[in-house]
Design goal:
single chain; mainly alpha; 3 helices
Length: 68
């Protein structure tokens, strides 16, 4: 399947380019890794703040998302 928004060859090349930058501190992979870690730390803090429960009251979740 190919088209202007989707082409398997372009996607494969993008994956190869991304993988090549994973160990490069100035590359996209390193900056993305830091972004992911920051996001996980934020969500971990939110999980702990909300009582570390797997199932939560829907209204409580809606209220916490207004802050974000």
């Amino acid at each position: 399947m190919c088209g202007p928004k989707f082409c398997s060859i372009k996607i494969t090349q993008d994956v190869h380019d991304y993988a090549a930058t994973l160990n490069d501190p100035t590359g996209v992979g390193a900056s993305m890794s830091g972004t992911i870690e920051d996001g996980m730390a934020t969500m971990s803090a939110k999980f702990k703040e909300m009582g570390e429960n797997l199932y939560l009251d829907a209204e409580k979740v809606k209220e916490s998302n207004r802050v974000l």
